[in-house]
Amino acid sequence: MVWPFKSKFRKQIARIEITGAIGGSTRKRVLEALKTVEEKKFPALLLRIDSPGGTVGDSQEIYSALKRLRKKIKIVASFGNISASGGVYIGMGAEHIMANPGTITGSIGVILRGNNLERLLEKVGVSFKVIKSGPYKDILAFDRQLTLPEESILQELIDVSYQQFVYTIAEARSLEVETVKTFADGRIFTGEQALELGVVDRLGTEEDARCWTAEMLGLDPDKAPCYTLEERKPLLSRVLPGSRLVSSGLGAGIDWLEFEMSTSGLPLWLYRP
Questions:
Q1: Is 72 a catalytic residue?
Q2: What pTM was estimated for this model as a whole?
Q3: Of 6, 28, 72, 137, which one is the catalytic site residue?
């Protein structure tokens, strides 16, 4: 799509927010927003991240899109309350990163969880007959324990995903791979510690990040506005403001439950306290 009146966006900073667990819906929304940023010819993007991470593939696609866009415009990431695991990975797509001193970040690593309900099923007298084409087709089945070969297969999968994560951080932050591995062991740390480790460039608020972005563009920080690209709200929440309060808490709980169910058995770049 060709956008009319493009000039009015050339002195504005685009802003995209990434909140909550990263999954397919987040990826779709963010990729569409990044396309709009490019089409409207914004000179810079302020990426606000408040996320514990999420699915590996979706995080990688957002990161790749940011990396491509970074060749055309400046991108600054602002880490909010939490930017951990996949949130960190996405942040690596930004040219510059700012975090609050107390931001919870890190959790660099991969986790995969399955459920073993074998003993419960035995108590209620439920069993399954499985016909499969190969010995590993039902890997992580919830009605039995993992075999040693299966554990080895899954561990290799996790290790490969972990290496991808480490190499991306090393490349993005100009760090040695072995240096990254010293703190990429799943631990969480503050924004202040992240600065010492070289994961972020500066400490400050989102407003500080906006001013920093404006200064890099040669714009007046007091006059350079942010243009937030956000998902269009449902009609009900726009017509009835009170419904937002009711739906926000319930909706967040439902969204998280759906995320848990849909990602069971998948390797995740996710901080799970």
A1: no
A2: 0.86
A3: 137
